[in-house]
Specification:
Layout lengths: L12 E5 L3 E6 L3 E7 L2 E4 L8 E4 H5 L9 E4 L2 E2 L2 E2 L2 H16 L9 E6 L5 H13 L4 E6 H8 L10 E6 L4 E7 L2 E8 L3 H16 L1 E2 L2 H11 L9 E8 L5 E7 H24 L3 H10 L1 E4 L8 H9 L3 E3 L6 H11 L10
Parallel strand pairs: 1-9, 9-10, 11-17, 17-18
Antiparallel strand pairs: 1-2, 2-3, 4-5, 4-6, 7-8, 11-12, 12-13, 14-15, 15-16
Helix pairs in contact: 2-3, 4-10, 5-6, 5-7, 6-7, 7-9
């Protein structure tokens, strides 16, 4: 699979429509929008009325909506789960990003999808973007965009490896000469780590916590390496009494709870390495592995992957923005030279 940077030209914009967050970048302006991939919608009987609000405005209503209104996350595992809500939500996002009521009308957009996305899922996203008025929509595999955004030279005739850990998926790829030489894609990401924490607390303490609390626990106590004595209290609802209840957790408990999910990510990296051609595998001893995506910020994940593979592992600068910035680079040809053949 090869991508020519020269295939795209002119002023460009890029969108990283993730399971948890949506990021929009515009040529000459950089990142202009980073909002939760969320929408407030009416219940089924009134869904034809469209969405009520989107992004941060919608997420502020989470758990506090009146009857007849729901907060939904219309992307699941990196692909569209609710096409109607995604279309309306993107319309709102483009109005905010472009600063005009016409939103993305006439714009040339580069969009990204995980490697596990099917042709039907790719078409659904392209149609949703074009429905917002975009003149053209081009799809780029997320690992290529993330690698470009992380500053990697994806057109060099040298093997380099990237692990992009998003909210719903993890893409692992070995890249050389503008193409993907080996890859693995799993529907496991930050949201699944949050779910593992919530399930552990429900099973161990009989307390149900919300998605936001689970994410807070992950960020404050979560770690890829087992251990940790730091203790903090969190609030939830007792499954037995239905009343509010506090739970005290340690870092060791949380790391133990998420270990099976983290193991899936590490196994994906190992599978990709096992399928990498020998010459490119040898290159990785020098180039190492780069982590991108929000999941890259899980404490100790770089050290765990380094221990499991024997390779040096680094975390990209601004890992959450790598996909959008890389897609913008590729879409505009900025600082990118396609490989030349004799």
């Amino acid at each position: 699979m090869f991508f020519s940077a020269g295939a795209l030209f002119g002023r460009a914009a890029a969108i990283d429509l993730g399971t948890v967050n949506t990021v929009v970048a515009i040529e000459g302006r950089g990142i202009v929008l980073n909002e939760p991939t969320a929408a407030a919608v009416y219940t089924e009987a009134q869904r034809e009325r469209g969405i009520i609000s989107s992004g941060a405005d919608a997420e502020r209503l989470y758990g506090r909506t009146p009857g007849g209104v729901n907060i939904i996350y219309p992307m699941k595992d990196g692909v569209i789960a609710d096409i109607s809500a995604v279309g309306d939500m993107l319309g709102d996002f483009f109005i905010k990003a472009f600063g005009r009521r016409r939103g993305a009308a006439g714009a040339r957009l580069t969009i990204c999808l995980p490697l596990c996305a099917t042709e039907l899922e790719q078409r659904a996203l392209t149609d949703a973007v074009k429905a917002c008025g975009a003149r053209e929509a081009t799809i780029i595999p997320e690992p290529l965009a993330a690698a470009a955004g992380a500053g990697m030279d994806i057109f060099a005739p040298v093997g380099s490896m990237l692990v992009d850990i998003g909210g719903g998926t993890t893409d692992t790829a070995v890249i050389s000469y503008g193409g993907i030489a080996a890859n693995d894609s799993i529907k496991t990401g930050g949201r699944h780590i949050d779910g593992a924490i919530a399930d552990y607390i429900a099973a161990q303490y009989g307390v149900r916590i919300g998605e936001k609390t689970a994410e807070e626990i992950k960020l404050s106590l979560g770690a890829a390496l087992i251990g940790g004595m730091e203790r903090r209290q969190f609030k939830g609802r007792s499954l037995k009494t239905g009343l509010p209840e506090c739970v005290a957790l340690t870092g060791g408990e949380v790391s133990h709870a998420i270990a099976p999910t983290v193991r899936k990510i590490v196994d994906s990296v190992r599978r990709t390495l096992s399928e990498t051609p020998p010459e490119l595998a040898a290159d990785l001893i020098d180039t190492g592995i780069v982590l991108t995506g929000g999941g890259a910020k899980l404490r100790g994940l770089d050290k765990l992957i380094s221990h499991e593979t024997g390779l040096k592992v680094s975390i990209a600068e601004d890992p959450m923005y790598c996909v959008a910035l890389g897609a913008l680079k590729l879409g505009s040809g900025e600082d990118m030279d396609a490989p030349r053949y004799a």
